[in-house]
């Protein structure tokens, strides 16, 4: 009896209006999209005001003779871009910037990975050693540059030359010789960033399951084989992140070379970012500085895009 009543009750329900259901579903989805848009609007506004608008202004000024403060300017076309490619200081700055970015990226990666592997092992005072290595990455590169400028000073107060003098050796022009100045700037850049990137790799190492190493040991794999076939593939996401940060930071470097050498001697440690600031602010040639900034923005974007593509290919290779 009850089953018959339930069957009749179900049979008496009105048929489902599929069109009404779809309309209500679309309305609910539209409401969620509008709500999401309002949450994203402040971020979009900041992005437009602080990035797109200045980028558009810089691109426009690169075709003018704007001096940075007077609105009395005229259209010069591609003249500013021609001056960029014929300016010796800018070309030297580009060469050192590329050298700096590549050497620092390779140097930090080659040293930070083995360091992270060592710090991941158990030994007495491990936490203290980890803290020491990370501590040197806390100060900014500008502060590092000021400190090491004093250490490498050619005067008697210079720490390194004072140590050399104690052993009867003559002073070394660390920051006044072209080759030595490049070496010092790049060396300090590598030294200052090893700790942070080693900590990044250490976080990825600690996420590797210990069972993988135990199984590899049972299978007869030695330490090098375990590193090549377990550790390195598991570290690939960290390597991609680290090299991306190092390359992008190296291309836009300004603080360390400027505080240590002011771009000298000559233009041996001159960088592209310093050239942009010098042209736009120091020499009131905002148009030329803007042209250089636009070219540098495009070149950096291309390099980062290629780097990410290569990194993705390598990551898929190790998966």
Automatic annotation (TrEMBL):
Keyword Transport belongs to the record: yes
Topology with respect to the bilayer: Multi-pass membrane protein
Primary localization class, coarse: membrane
Transmembrane feature ranges: 34-56, 98-119, 131-152, 158-176, 183-204, 291-314
Cellular component, GO annotation: plasma membrane
Keywords: Cell membrane, Membrane, Transmembrane, Transmembrane helix, Transport
Biological process (GO), any one: transmembrane transport
Family: Belongs to the binding-protein-dependent transport system permease family.
PANTHER family in UniProt: ABC TRANSPORTER PERMEASE PROTEIN, INNER MEMBRANE ABC TRANSPORTER PERMEASE PROTEIN YCJO
Protein name in UniProt: Sugar ABC transporter permease
Origin organism lineage: Bacteria, Bacillati, Actinomycetota, Actinomycetes, Bifidobacteriales
């Amino acid at each position: 009896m009850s089953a018959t009543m339930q069957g009749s009750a179900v049979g008496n329900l009105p048929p489902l209006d599929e069109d009404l259901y779809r309309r209500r579903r679309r309305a609910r989805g539209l409401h969620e999209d509008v709500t999401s848009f309002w949450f994203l609007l402040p971020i979009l506004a900041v992005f437009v005001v602080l990035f797109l608008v200045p980028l558009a202004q810089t691109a426009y000024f690169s075709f003018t003779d704007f001096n940075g403060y007077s609105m009395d300017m005229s259209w010069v076309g591609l003249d500013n871009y021609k001056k960029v490619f014929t300016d010796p200081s800018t070309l030297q700055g580009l060469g050192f910037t590329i050298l700096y970015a590549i050497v620092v990226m390779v140097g930090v990666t080659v040293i930070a990975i083995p360091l992270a592997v060592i710090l991941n092992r158990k030994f007495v005072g491990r936490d203290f050693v980890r803290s020491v290595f990370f501590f040197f990455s806390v100060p900014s590169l500008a502060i590092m540059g000021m400190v090491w400028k004093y250490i490498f000073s050619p005067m008697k107060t210079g720490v390194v030359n004072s140590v050399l003098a104690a052993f009867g050796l003559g002073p070394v022009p660390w920051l006044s010789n072209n080759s030595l100045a490049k070496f010092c700037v790049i060396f300090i850049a590598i030294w200052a960033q090893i700790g942070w990137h080693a900590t990044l790799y250490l976080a990825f190492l600690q996420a590797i399951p210990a069972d993988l190493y135990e199984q590899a040991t049972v299978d007869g794999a030695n330490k090098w084989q375990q590193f090549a076939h377990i550790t390195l593939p598991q570290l690939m996401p960290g390597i991609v992140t680290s090299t991306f940060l190092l390359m992008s930071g190296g291309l836009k470097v300004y603080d360390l070379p400027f505080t240590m050498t002011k771009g000298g001697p000559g233009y041996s440690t001159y960088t592209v970012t310093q050239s942009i600031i010098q042209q736009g602010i120091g020499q009131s040639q905002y148009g030329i500085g803007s042209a250089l900034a636009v070219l540098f923005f495009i070149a950096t974007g291309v390099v980062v895009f290629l780097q990410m593509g290569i990194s993705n290919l390598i990551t898929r290779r190790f998966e």
